[in-house]
Design goal:
With 157 residues, this protein is mainly alpha-helical. The chain contains 7 helices and no strands. The chain is globular and about 50 Å long.
């Protein structure tokens, strides 16, 4: 029998304590900023930091619109995993660990979406504002209120 490796045991204990501390912080919804994490206070700042992150790693060759859309799709699909098999009520009352998993996946989606918009010179806020106007026309309040039917489906009046 080989002797236990104290480093492995110690590292595992540190990882477990660190994970417990993160979960406790996440459960309070007051996630502390990681050390050296730059402040991001706008989509423009996020765009610049995501661009700088990619440039520092020479990833521009990989960040084509096609590749970013594929990566975005994968990340959006990964956002499903924490909700898999939950009831509607459970999905509204996530544990600290589930909440943190969702938080991380949402961040991945936002980062890839921001990078894609940057490459295609799309202002995300302008695009969202325009789309809200379009959706307002498709789903007028008097027809859509309390109704989940798609605008192209006939009304069940």
């Amino acid at each position: 029998m080989s002797p236990a490796r104290p480093y492995t045991t110690h590292a595992s204990q540190i990882m477990m304590i660190t994970r417990q501390k993160r979960q406790k912080l996440a459960s309070c919804r007051g996630i502390m900023r990681l050390m050296n994490q730059p402040a991001i206070d706008s989509l423009e700042t996020l765009r610049q930091q995501v661009r700088a992150f990619a440039e520092a790693r020479a990833w521009e060759v990989f960040h084509t619109p096609k590749n970013l859309v594929m990566a975005l799709s994968v990340e959006a699909a990964e956002l499903l995993e924490p909700f898999q098999w939950l009831t509607a009520e459970q999905s509204q009352n996530l544990s600290a660990a589930q909440h943190e998993a969702v938080r991380q996946e949402i961040a991945d989606v936002l980062i890839y979406l921001t990078r894609l918009a940057d490459l295609l010179d799309i202002d995300l806020l302008d695009a969202a504002a325009d789309k809200l106007v379009i959706n307002g026309r498709k789903y007028p309040v008097d027809l859509a209120h309390g109704n989940a039917a798609k605008y192209s489906e006939p009304s069940n009046d």
